[in-house]
Amino acid sequence: MHEPVIAQPQRAARRALTLALCSVQFVDVMCVTVVVTALPDMVADFDGSAADSTMIATAYAAFFGGLLLFGARVGQRIGHRRSILASIALFAIAAAIAAMSPSALVLAGARAVQGGAAACAVPSALTLLSTHAPDEHARAKAVAVWSASGAAAGISGYAVGGALTQIGDWRLIFWSLVLVSALLAVVVRAAVPADPPQPTRQPFNAFGALTATGAVMLTVVGASVVGEGGYRSVVLLIAAAVTTAIFISVDRRSASPLIPAALARLRTVRWGSTTAFVNTATTSGVATVLTLHLQGAQGYSPAAAAVTLLPLSVMVIFGATAAGRLDRSLGAAAVGTIGMMLIAFGIAVLAGWPEVGLVVVIATTVMGCGLGMSSVASTATALSVPDTVRAAASGLVNTAAQLGTALGTAALLLLAASFDGEPNVAGASAPRIAWVAAAVLATATAAMWMTQRGSSHRGQRLA
């Protein structure tokens, strides 16, 4: 089914539209990590266990990542603007419940609902952002802003959560999200044009959506308990693999697949999604381990740990801006290569001198710049598709990014605990092995980007 043709807004209106839609993504992606720095206080308030900590930390990501493909279909079915507004309302209600949670279970449940609401908003926001662009140049610039906001959001969650917890209480995080949701709804209603009439509606492909959601959720939860011992993680990850195979079989046979065959065959989509996965697997994983290490081993307060990560968030914007300028002379593949190399270099510097505060700031600054550049390259590459499959492509690339956050964080935490001790324990060694592994992955991806310079990606413009 073709996306409906939408009248092009004027330049000022397009800017407002871009701001509104990127704000939707910023809030939704930020909430993946917003509880990390506040997690010790949350668990302590409920007199909770390690299992409670895992449940609270992963509930949002599991439902967000698991429902993104389904969320893309919801937008196609009911209209993208309606999907965003309904999602914001549900997100706000869940935030209020989280703020008043009497137990870890209720808090995790509210976070799960928030994640599901976010999954129905983000693909629609990206589809509208791309569809409203009057030409390829305007679309590329909008994608650059989108990429910068998403990359900055994931890192900003650590800082925002830490700062609010230091100022008042972890519940302030969720009361703030209620207010932000109200403001966001006003902005979206004002800036985003009404949905046009839809002559036909695609089926939901319920079984495909169910198996896709189950596969991602099982993967996220299985990865999050890898370091806890026992067979639970193995069982969950095997179940995830089986469910993934079922989804692929079901979706291929569906008359309305969530991932159309034409989309799955596109090299740009596969490569853009792979890079989105590596972006978050390396940077979010390193940031999580660093946050725990600073608070546990080095005695930083939540606010101090948040301030240390601020350069990472700020420099993402600089990196995304630089990506557009460099692309004009070097091309898309070169932008992706440079971005990944900067991520690898920043992580390597961090692994070398993690006890020196200035070095940590320099390392996170370099990582942030690289993340901004690589995010623009990956998103633009993945969305270089026909309008007919752009909504599905947006769901796929965002799913890859969320899986990267979950699996990358789990893998680095496991490596840290195995070789250097739990990073949040006083006196633990710096998790150098984990960070070196992340640097190696980023370096390998940079090398693969270099091979794209002679492929069909050459000449592709990002901004």
Describe the structure.
The protein has about 475 residues and is an all-alpha fold. It has a single domain (about 10-455), classed as Up-down Bundle (Growth Hormone, Chain: A), CATH 1.20.1250. It has helices spanning about 10-35, 40-45, 50-80, 80-100, 105-130, 135-165, 170-190, 205-225, 230-255, 260-265, 265-295, 300-330, 330-350, 355-380, 390-420, 430-450. Keywords: Cell membrane, Membrane, Transmembrane, Transmembrane helix, Transport. Its main location: membrane. This is Putative MFS family arabinose efflux permease.
Any guess at the CATH architecture?
A: Up-down Bundle
Number of DSSP-assigned strands = 0
Mean pLDDT: 82
The amount of helix comes to over 70%
**CATH superfamily placement:** MFS general substrate transporter like domains
Q: Specify Rg, calculated over alpha carbons.
A: 21 Å
Instruction: Look at the helices and sheets and give the structural class.
Output: mainly alpha
Count of discrete structural domains:
1
Uncertain stretches of 5 or more adjacent residues: 1-7, 455-463
What is the N-to-C order of secondary-structure elements (H for helix, E for strand)?
HHHHHHHHHHHHHHHH
Measured distance between first and last alpha carbons: 28 Å
**Major pleated sheet:** none
State the CATH class.
Answer: Mainly Alpha
Q: Helical element count?
A: 16
Keywords: Cell membrane, Membrane, Transmembrane, Transmembrane helix, Transport
Domain Major facilitator superfamily (MFS) profile: 17-456
Membrane topology: Multi-pass membrane protein
Protein name: Putative MFS family arabinose efflux permease
